[in-house]
Amino acid sequence: NTASHSRADCMCPGGMYGVGGNYSNGGSCADCPEGMSCAFGSHELFGSSDVHVEALTFPRVREGFMTLASQALSPYRCLVEAWCPGGDTAVCSSHRDNTKVAFGARLPGH
What we know:
Strands 1-2 form a two-stranded antiparallel sheet. Strands 3-4 form a two-stranded antiparallel ribbon. A two-stranded antiparallel sheet has the order 5-6. It is mainly β. The chain is about 0% helix and about 20% strand. β5 and β6 form a beta hairpin.
């Protein structure tokens, strides 16, 4: 039984993200959801406003997909790829309603 000598040894590789507890407290790795990008060290806890670890990240949304703020790890393919620039959770192009699945609804007055 060998102990890790580096915090990086306890993080999920690219293409996966951490789930459950933190890396040193029983967390595990899961495959990155389709429509998302998971860099080395990505973890579901890093989407929480009370958890911040320098240089680590929450899984990112790929261009052409979107997530709702309430379901940040459940991406939807957008009706029109240009409406969904990707990046952060619940981000959409101008005049699109980021509370609607796949940003199909235009904001009132647009």
